[in-house]
Task: structure prediction
Amino acid sequence: MSEEIKLMKGNEAIAHAAIRCGCDGYFGYPITPQSEVLETLTEVEPWKTTGMNVLQAESEVAAINMVYGGAGTGKKVMTSSSSPGVSLKQEGISYLAGAELPALIVNVMRGGPGLGTIQPSQADYFQTVKGGGHGDYKLIALAPASVQEMADFVGLGFDLAFKYRNPAIILADGVIGQMMEKVVLPPFKPRRTDEEIVKECPWAAVGKPKNRKCNIITSLELDPAVMEKKNLHLQEKYREIEANEVRYEEIQCKDAEYLLVAFGSSARICQKAVEMARAEGIKVGLLRPITLWPFPSKVLNQFANQVKSMLCVELNAGQMVEDVRLAVNGKVKVEHFGRLGGIVYTPDEIIEAMKAKIM
Amino acid sequence: MTIEDIIKPENLVYKKPDLMNDRPMHYCPGCSHGVVHKLIGEVLEEMDVVEDTIGITPVGCAVFAYNYLDIDWEEAAHGRAPAMAVAIKRLRPNKLVFTYQGDGDLAAIGTAETIHACNRRDSITIIFINNGIYGMTGGQMAPTTLEGMKTATCPYGRDVKVNGHPLKITNLLKELDGTCYVTRQSVQTAAAVRKTKKAIRKAFENNLNNRGVSVVEVVSTCNSGWKMSPSMANKWMEENMFPAYPLGDLKDTTI
Result:
């Protein structure tokens, strides 16, 4: 049977992909521009087919703690929200990371700070990759640049989350969430049975049989020596993820003299800018980080030996540019171009900025 | 003569539940938590449901309850236990899911989660220890602190003009359609302990029989926080806490 191509919004793709990848539970709260995730799920009613639970929580705080509770029993659970809501979730995200629970969080970013705007933005980059909540922890951060990737990264996010017992986050924005594109949804994967969960997650709190020790899900430890060890273990895990899970896309980079660096919706606009600049004879390429953490630092450092300069294009006041500069470590000039407040740049503006800032 | 010669099984008059391990408790002498822990252990053992039980500990003195009762536990963020319990029960409807929370956890920072959990019909159990004070952080004012009662953050006594009134949250919870059993008990005498045990048993049976939310409030002492001897604290509780928080069933739709 040939693959069925559908036309839908990025937010809808998240919902359909969740059902298809064997998700056990979704807990969310309405907020623009991501409400279609919850709306789609309640319309499709997956509890009647796959048995997936869907619940509208009383708040984003409750939703992330529902995720924490469910993840602690080994279930495949997720939540989605947009920037102000994700700020509310930070406590729970820190607990998930501290208790080493696998879970999936989706942030369809809007402009801030505060209540900000409902228009798209990429200003939660720092919040996502530098912590957000309290303590030394990392989230596996995936940045989709298409509706197809919205669908694909649900399964990938869960796989990585369970592989490393660490929360994963899909960092999208209002553009990717709201735009409609064609998409091939992932094939149906059955939800795991309770026996399979116990096998895959021997740490899960599911009720203690006589023949094993208690399973206790906690991030608390008052003995400093034990707590330092626990933290070192987390750091060791993060190094392993950095070594194995970096993902990025190179677009017309082979002969590039200039490099654009952009993720998500910005990368889509940059792709057009690259095409237009090349028509003018400017040899420019685009490096698109797919994982924002772990960050593709190595490959950027290598490109610093090839290109004359780099322009980091993001819908914020300059966030990822700091990581690009760290990666390049002074080898070439790295500048930033952004628009704020929900305004999205055109490819022409990006070419102009490139000419003004790095050429 | 050895200890085995003196202590024989046929002479056994009391035994702690096997679920309760031998770790030294961090609770202060005179604290009610240990008694309630023991009752939970006894009831779970008598019902033979350990393999299907998931407990959720709060933030507060009982944060370490997971160190003392050998069952599977999840440790919650402050106030969030009811939200977790709802999710666990939905994902694992055949499990006995209960939260164990103090007054600050349940009636201050977790009020929203408590009310919404009690308004849904998920059959979870909430064990609520109300001693009118924050014990773990050193005796600060709780939502349930009585008028005039002195704590570290109302050192001259709770002034209702400044701090509002003692929150009778259980009275509120009984009004919600999702609760099937709401009761207020205590553990300062042998008779009270027996009553509380019965209440916990009923709450856990409701849990497995899918009857809705059961709330067992245990009006308790915090003799360290109250700065009294354990026996003084019991007397003070009877004279001051019980008039504000009268004991008995507030709601029982299962009769």
